[in-house]
């Protein structure tokens, strides 16, 4: 724990994998689970930039949630879309996907290195070109999904 603490002061971005490699280089037989358990006991957590994928725009309309107590039992009744991030060696790639809730099928997806509305619009246009229009399109209230250009679809 002393070695973990000393190294954490030097490199606070080290996660359990890097810390395990560091300890092994110094002759300690440890595995990742042990390092994770010890850092948790010490209250240490790696410091690195985490992306925010849902950031509402203050001027965009807040849309109502339409799916409460609704039975979804047929294709194209409800689609959903969301953005997630894929950590890369230098930064992130953002993935947006459109999925049919009844079939759980991914209808279309795109990768981008920015979270602009363009790649969200492209993925929805592709899904609609292939499968038609859904009855309801459900997303979170992120600025990409509440922008007038996106909701205009």
Task: Give structural notes.
The chain is an alpha+beta fold and 153 residues long. It has two domains: 2-42; 78-151, Ribonuclease H-like superfamily/Ribonuclease H (Nucleotidyltransferase, domain 5, 2-Layer Sandwich), CATH 3.30.420.10. 35% of the residues lie in helices and 20% in strands. The protein has helices spanning 2-10, 16-25, 32-42, 117-131, 143-146, 148-151, and strands at residues 78-88, 91-100, 106-112, 136-138. It has a four-stranded mixed beta sheet with strand order 3-2-1-4, covered by helices on one side. Strand 1 (78-88) and strand 2 form a beta hairpin. Helix 2 crosses helix 3. The chain is elongated. The model has no long low-confidence stretch (mean pLDDT 88).
Question: Layout of helices and strands, plus pairs?
Answer:
Blueprint: H1 2-10, H2 16-25, H3 32-42, E1 78-88, E2 91-100, E3 106-112, H4 117-131, E4 136-138, H5 143-146, H6 148-151
Parallel strand pairs: 1-4
Antiparallel strand pairs: 1-2, 2-3
Keywords, please?
alpha+beta, single chain, 35% helix, Nucleotidyltransferase, domain 5, 4 strands, 153 residues, 6 helices
Count the E strands. 4
Tally of contiguous helical segments? 6
Q: Order of helices and strands, N to C?
A: HHHEEEHEHH
Q: Sum up the overall morphology in one term.
A: elongated
User: What radius of gyration results from the CA coordinates?
Assistant: 21 Å
Superfamily (CATH H level) name of the largest domain: Ribonuclease H-like superfamily/Ribonuclease H
Mean pLDDT: 88
Q: Could you list the spans in which at least 5 consecutive residues all have pLDDT below 50?
A: none
The CATH class designation of the largest domain is Alpha Beta
Q: How much helicity do the residues have? A: 25-40%
The assigned structural class equals: alpha+beta
Major β-sheet annotation: 4 strands, mixed
């Amino acid at each position: 724990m002393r070695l973990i603490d000393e190294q954490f002061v030097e490199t606070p971005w080290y996660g359990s994998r890097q810390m395990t490699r560091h300890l092994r280089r110094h002759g300690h037989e440890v595995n990742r689970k042990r390092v994770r358990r010890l850092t948790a006991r010490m209250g240490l957590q790696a410091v690195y930039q985490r992306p925010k994928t849902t950031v509402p725009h203050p001027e965009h309309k807040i849309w109502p949630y339409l799916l409460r107590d609704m039975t979804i039992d047929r294709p194209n009744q409800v689609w959903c879309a969301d953005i997630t991030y894929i950590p890369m060696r230098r930064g992130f790639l953002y993935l947006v996907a459109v999925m049919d809730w009844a079939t759980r099928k991914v209808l279309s997806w795109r990768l981008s290195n920015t979270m602009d509305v363009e790649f969200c619009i492209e993925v929805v246009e592709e899904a609609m070109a292939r499968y038609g229009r859904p009855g309801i399109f459900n997303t979170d209230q992120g600025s990409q999904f509440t922008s007038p250009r996106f909701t205009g679809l």
